[in-house]
Design a protein that fits this description.
Function: Catalyzes the formation of N(7)-methylguanine at position 46 (m7G46) in tRNA.
Distance between the termini: 19 Å
Keywords: Methyltransferase, S-adenosyl-L-methionine, Transferase, tRNA processing
Number of strands: 8
Largest sheet: 8 strands, mixed
CATH architecture: 3-Layer(aba) Sandwich
Helix content: 25-40%
Protein name: tRNA (guanine-N(7)-)-methyltransferase
Number of domains: 1
CATH superfamily: Vaccinia Virus protein VP39
Radius of gyration: 18 Å
Bound molecules: S-adenosylmethionine
CATH class: Alpha Beta
Family: Belongs to the class I-like SAM-binding methyltransferase superfamily. TrmB family.
Shape: globular
Catalytic activity: guanosine(46) in tRNA + S-adenosyl-L-methionine = N(7)-methylguanosine(46) in tRNA + S-adenosyl-L-homocysteine
Length: about 240
């Protein structure tokens, strides 16, 4: 959130006005399976991060200075855990609001003995603003974010000018923001927002989309989509300034 927006919100709140934030998710109270609940209890002390604790010191969190990759909205965490397992020389932070997803991710990470992964159960917009130091991230991943199909809901899409600007400030110079979506209209929206945003360079030679890089695991859902002839669009933008 920009300083002027923050000031406007603080001013409105001090005047007793109620401001409803537009969020990119609706909190679903999904039930936890027994396995998810047990994993949350077992793994949260070592792998859970709390928004209320404020700014993170990555060296302290991970015990090393390896590059940090942040994933927003990891769902059940399958591809995040796979990436963390394959790349032990990087550190991974996942953010997800859906508790069963967080439980599933911890269960998977525990089963695969992944040690370079930490997770937040919180709104990524607030985690970015309050917990991540400027210029600290090697990469940010946003895979298949909720597309909010209806036009009147497009304002809920997480990719918005203000969001990508706040995200840019958290990347290192040369760090990459990688998005993927299977919804063409959202891909076009992402491209439009990113092209209008200063100080990012598109890594696509044709200045639009990229083939899926090997670093992004192919999900079952995506494999099925491929068979049905559905498209997937990857966008990769580098922070240049
Ligand atoms: C369509 S799912 C995709 C999940 C996963 N990335 C995948 O590819 O299977 C989008 C996920 O983003 C999460 N999400 C949406 N907005 C979020 C936010 N502001 N902070 C954290 N998670 C969010 C949702 O709870 C949901 O699990």
């Amino acid at each position: 959130m920009s300083e002027s927006t923050q000031q406007a919100l603080a001013q409105a709140e001090s005047e007793g006005k109620y401001i409803r934030k537009v969020r990119s998710f609706v909190k679903r109270e999904g039930r936890l399976t027994k396995g998810q609940a047990a994993s949350l209890e077992k793994c949260w002390p070592s792998m859970g991060l709390e928004h209320k604790n404020g700014l993170l010191d990555f060296t302290q969190v991970f015990g090393n200075d390896n590059p940090v990759v942040l994933e927003i909205g990891f769902g059940m965490g399958k591809s995040l855990v796979e990436m963390a397992k394959k790349d032990p020389n990087s550190n991974f932070i996942g953010i997800e609001v859906h508790r069963p997803g967080v439980g599933a991710c911890l269960m998977d990470a525990d089963a695969q003995e992944v040690t370079n992964l930490r997770v937040f159960e919180h709104d990524a917009v607030e985690v970015l603003a309050d917990c991540i130091a400027d210029g600290s991230l090697a990469k940010v991943q946003l895979f298949f974010p909720d597309p909010w199909h209806k036009k009147r809901h497009h304002k809920r899409r997480i990719v918005q000018p203000e969001f990508v600007e706040s995200l840019r400030s958290k990347l290192k110079i040369g760090g990459v923001f990688h998005m993927a979506t299977d919804w063409e209209n959202y891909a076009e929206h992402m491209l439009e927002v990113m092209q209008a945003s200063e100080n990012y360079a598109n890594q696509s030679p044709s200045n639009d989309y990229m083939p899926r890089p090997d670093s992004r695991p192919l999900t079952k859902f995506e494999q099925r989509g491929h068979r049905l002839g559905h498209g997937v669009w990857d966008l990769m933008f580098e922070r240049v300034k």
